[in-house]
Design a protein that fits this description.
Elements (H helix, E strand, L loop, with lengths): L1 E3 L2 H13 L4 E6 L5 H13 L2 E6 L19 H10 L4 E3 L3 H4 L13 H4 L2 H4 L3 H16 L3 E5 L3 H14 L4 E5 L19 H6 L1 H15 L5 H13 L4 E10 L12 E10 L2 E10 L1
Helix pairs in contact: 7-8, 10-11
Length: about 280
């Protein structure tokens, strides 16, 4: 497995692979990898000739007071996992390499798709995401890029960006990977105390409850959200950021549950903010 630390070297290797007729699958990550990330690598390995994993904690998608400095990092451990997963190349640049002095070019998306859910809670977040992902696409030249459904809004934003900016690649969604007890895998789970970890199970339970209620015929989003709120607030340390239901394809408002909808939530336990979601089609 090769490890590249500069955009120039990574891009040169990717150009060689493309010239040789190899397809490239890219898995963008911020590191501190878990089985959720590795499921993306496995899918990329299944579909592509070459697999590139980027490991970069992107400073411009973190807001003031967020956990940039404390975000967990373990590059050597990550590389060991990726080698075992038969990754071909790791791109692990520095912030200075990605954003040189006087850097001033950004990719920004306007509208509903970025100004609600995490976009409302984290101003500027998606400007950072679209900018860094655009750079990764131009550096790694993927034919396919693999993203987890756990970050549902992020996937929608990136899919829209790819369509509208004519990036010549396919975005592949990979289902949420969960612990045996239902908690969505996340690098931030390491921040949770044992009691917070136990209480955080209300997130997946609330989503399952919502899915079951819809399956029984309930179509009023407000009633479904109210039930989820009651369930989550039964956990003493839970502080709800949002619980929302939108049309799955574009996060448009809905008056009733019909077609495919996204049920999304963000909840804090202590200082740890967790997200989860469920796609439902009726």
């Amino acid at each position: 497995m090769l490890i590249f630390e500069t955009a120039q070297a990574m891009q040169a290797w990717c150009k060689q692979q493309k010239k040789a007729g190899q397809t490239i699958g890219l898995v963008p990550t911020m590191g501190y990898l878990h089985q959720g990330h590795l499921s993306l690598v496995q899918e990329a390995r299944r579909q592509c000739d070459r697999v590139v994993v980027s490991i970069f904690v992107n400073p411009i998608q973190f807001g003031v007071g967020e956990d940039l400095d404390k975000y967990p990092r373990d590059l050597s451990g990550d590389c060991q996992l990726l080698e075992e997963a038969q990754t071909d190349a790791v791109f692990a640049p520095s912030a200075r390499d990605m954003y040189p002095e006087a850097y001033a070019t950004f990719v920004e998306m306007e509208g509903t798709i970025t100004n609600r859910l995490c976009g409302a809670s984290r101003p500027g977040h998606f400007r950072g995401v679209t900018t860094v992902v655009s750079k990764l696409f131009n550096i790694c030249l993927p034919d396919q890029a693999f993203f987890g459904q756990k970050d549902a809004q992020q996937v929608l934003v990136i899919e829209k960006m790819v369509r509208e900016l004519n990036f010549p690649l396919e975005i592949v969604r990979v289902p949420i990977k969960r612990e045996a007890d239902g908690l969505a895998m996340s690098s931030r789970n390491v921040y949770l105390s044992s009691e917070q970890r136990r209480q955080a199970l209300v997130l997946s339970q609330a989503l399952q409850q919502a899915g079951a209620i819809i399956g029984q015929g309930e179509r009023d989003p407000a009633k479904i959200i109210a039930g989820m709120q009651t369930r989550i607030e039964s956990a003493p340390e839970a502080r709800i950021d949002y619980i929302e239901i939108y049309r799955a394809e574009d996060l448009a408002d809905i008056k009733q549950i019909e077609g495919k909808v996204l049920i999304a939530l963000a909840v804090k336990f202590g200082n740890t903010r967790l997200i989860d979601n469920l796609l439902v089609e009726v």
